[in-house]
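Please, structure for the following, as tokens.
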Amino acid sequence: MSTNFNKYFEVNKETWNKKVAIHSKSEFYNVEEFKKGKTSLNSYEIEELGDVERKTLLHLQCHFGQDTLSWSRMGATCTGIDISDKGIKEAKKLNSELGLNATFIESNLYDVPQKVKGVFDIVFTSYGVIGWLPDLNTWGKIIAEKLKKGGVFYMIEFHPIVWMFDFLQTPPKLTYPYLNKEVIYEEYKGTYTNSDASIISKEYGWNHGLGEVVSALTNAGLQIEFLHEFEKSPYNSFPDMEMTDDGLFILKENQRMFPLLYSIRATKK
């Protein structure tokens, strides 16, 4: 990985470290209900990944570990990694409080081959993850390297069309090219859980189209089982979205022009 990206990673790490204290107390993450047994996982990933009992699972970019611990509650032996040392510290604290056996490791994704030992039945990542990664070909190779033969990679992510909008404007404005190759810098007050929080979020990110994501995985030798796109999202990420009967969010009918999420399941043959 080029050292040219290190300055971006350091800024992002600093921002995520600031976010942890806010997110862990936010209504969005609802840690108190989580401690009482509520899963942080959504129906898409639970249904599409399936039974994880007695499986080993590596969770990439796990924030402060709620999804990792939710898989652990479902019987998986989990390892979670994240660039934020404060996120990992909070994840370890939650793991201890809940009496679970997950392992958490502070690591930039690109350092996983050095910092995470062994191979896994499942590699998992979800919601707002690949936009922090400048190089998806290396990402795909790391996933393949960390999977056992016959192992499964599963991701669910916001659709690349969603990332074409500038959410710092109201209403969100179509701003960034789908095939944008340059780094995108944003600076704004608050976070996605608490827009009124006092922190200034400084973030560097990269847009990746579906073709780039799929090619990174297939170039690494993984076989795609499916790519699904969804018009409903668990997250109220656009203004004036409507809640559906199943508790998900959807754009208003006259705005329903593109999917909000996609998921990919792939196997290592």
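The chain has one domain: 3-163+208-268. The radius of gyration is 18 Å.
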